[in-house]
Amino acid sequence: MGRNKPEISEDHIRIGKMIRRKREALELSQQEVADIVGVSKSAVSRWESGEVANMGTSKVQALAEVLKTSPLSFIYGEEYKAEVLPFKTKRIPLLGEIAAGEPIFAVEDHTAYIEIKENIRIDFCLKVKGDSMINARILDGDLVFVKKQATVDNGEIAVVLIDDEVTLKRFYKTDAGIILKPENTRYEPRFFTASDFKDVRILGKAILFQSKL
To answer: Is 132 a catalytic residue?
Structure first.
């Protein structure tokens, strides 16, 4: 199945404009940025148009270095300074680990929090463990930022509860049941029906991915 076109929000558009502004300030062409980061010129053009939801940790880091900014700028959409945040923020809990591989239990650790921009619609984050989503540029150790919701569109990346364990996969619902699809050919999709007697529920939609700094 083909991938859905990434959702472009106002925050994504703002981040895209920031990328373009910084590139032009450094007098770099899209092709020059593409060559340094290791992507196509069209990828840079898409980023500047706001298609930045799943850029991948390595590309975020490389692009930040080229544009002489912090990787967190690609979450906040503007120059990020650790000492002084120029906007209102909120703290979201880091709830533990989520499997990008076999499901694992997510331990709720409310002593750990991440500071994010107040108007970003994210409720919690989890640390990724495993390699089953690497073709979606989600790597072991990345942070996944999640918006709580009970449903997602087919093909979207979701945090899914299976009994008392959670996993991160592309979600598909069919008349026959539910498919959780990895983004790594080493792993097979998992199929669940009502006869499996499992509690399979969507906990939220994955909105952003970022390496933990």
So the answer is: yes
CATH code given to domain 91-211: 2.10.109.10
In the structure encoding, which two tokens stand for residue 176, read together? 């026959």
Q: Which of 22, 59, 129, 169 is catalytic?
A: 169
CA–CA dist 96, 172 (Å, integer): 25
Q: What is the average per-residue pLDDT within 156-162?
A: 89
22, 129, 132, 205: the active-site residue: 132
Which of these ranges, 61-65, 102-106, 200-204, 207-211, has the smallest mean pLDDT? 102-106
Decide if 86 contacts 76 (C-beta within 8 A).
no
User: Both tokens of residue 169?
Assistant: 């996969």
10 Å CB burial of residue 77 (0-12, 13-18, 19+) is buried
Domain ranges of the chain: 10-76, 91-211
DSSP 16-46: HHHHHHHHHHTT--HHHHHHHHTS-HHHHHH
Whether residue 24 contacts residue 16, with contact meaning beta carbons closer than 8 Å, is answered with: no
Per CATH, the number for 10-76 is: 1.10.260.40
What would the pLDDT profile of 98-152 be if each residue is shown by its tens digit? 655 544 444 454 446 777 777 778 888 888 888 888 888 888 888 888 888 999 9
